[in-house]
Amino acid sequence: MESIEVRLGYKFRNPLLLAEALTHPSLAYESQKAHFDNQRLEFLGDSVLQLVLTEHLYRMFPDSPEGHMTKLRAQLVSRQALAQFASHLQLGHYILLGKGEEASGGRKRASTLADALEALIGAIYLDSGYQSAHELVLRLFEQGIGLVAESKTESNPKGTLQETLQSLSQEAPRYRITGESGPDHRKVFHAQVIWRDEVLAQGRGKSKKEAEVRAALEALRKKVWLREEASPE
Question: Of these residues, 42, 46, 101, 210, which one is catalytic?
């Protein structure tokens, strides 16, 4: 239990919540005895996860319509995506399973891993509140958020900005990380997007990719290059 806490970067005040989050229903079914399992915590964790990601995407894409943000969130909370996040934590090693479930490969089953991850989020929410759950979700999902933000099948601010600028000039925009702030567990990166040696906009994010995406979004919002193109030489 201590090693999964190290992987999570979170120490439970109530270890029973952690045990409950990692207990698969098959354990109680096989023993034919009353025993807690992670289904209730999974139900709670699903709602907490949805709220955290909804809020984050809402702030990350201030000009995006509701439908676009819904699609991005759906990519992050799909059964397969959650199972991958759980695999990065090696969560399957810690789940308590019945013998039959174990023998049938349940430790690697996507639904088992996804449910356990949501249950963990629910357990942390109960253990110390929304802020702790919020920090955990954004830390675990950081790379996934960066990937969906740059997805070529969805809104791609950096690609849109490059296409727009290269319709005016062959020079492509470039990005520069200018610094970082905050403690290690809540680090914020600062980025600039530069074109024709001019800083078009700046952005901040919990990863370098997110900071660059936010800079591109701000540049698209401000459209500084239109004023430059319109000004007399």
Answer: 46
